Amino acid sequence: MASHIDTGEETPQQLAERLHLPFKDSMLLSRALTHRSYLNEHPEAIEDNERLEFLGDAVLDFMVGAWLYNYYPEMPEGDLTRMRSALVHTEQLAEFARSVNLGNAMHLGRGEIQTGGQDRSALLCDTFEALIGALYLHAGIGGVDNFIVPLLEGAADYILATHQNEDPKSQLQEWAQARGFTAPLYLTRNANGPDHAKVFEIDVVIGGEVYGSGTGHSKQSAAKAAARTALSRIGFDHHEIDQ
Q1: b vs e for 105-139, b when ≥16 Cβ sit within 10 Å of the residue's Cβ?
Q2: Domain boundaries 168-233, corresponding CATH code
């Protein structure tokens, strides 16, 4: 087990050993861990992880879809689509990254470190995707499968148990319209931070009243968080409305 220090400098080799990742050459893994802010401050670094992030995003979509198809043989297509969305959205991928302590190995610029970038969901998600991209290039589908499946199994069971695969905005709209209200309005109350790490604050309004608020790194994720808050406030039971 590699030792961890607060400054977040677990080496790529230590990360590979701790997670039993089959990287023989740490250069590819190091690139997967390198944010562009680090590249700006360290000219000796050759490339950031954005291309690997692009690849990893595509690999995850395919791998999660294939895994769900086999793991839930009776699940209809619409439910499979919602489950895949729940498993690959930013917050869930960030939770995967946290579960393997990926933030401790990320190569970030000083500014990102000082503002808590090692635990910021958007950066953790991006780095996790880049790690998947690097793992695919180095070890193929089998290497990705060995790493990702144990994470998916626990997360999928939890998502189903807590109904996180169900779209909160759709649920809230159905609840509102069943009671004679017009569709909920999602109003941006605030937007703070630099463009690459902006945080949105959104209120959801029904019948002229604010029912919930939420934050997120995109307007969509903040709106979903607001809808979840509203559903919690009204004590929504997912059995109330036929899906």
Answers
A1: bbbbbeebbeeebbebbbbbbbbbbbbbbbbbbbb
A2: 3.30.160.20
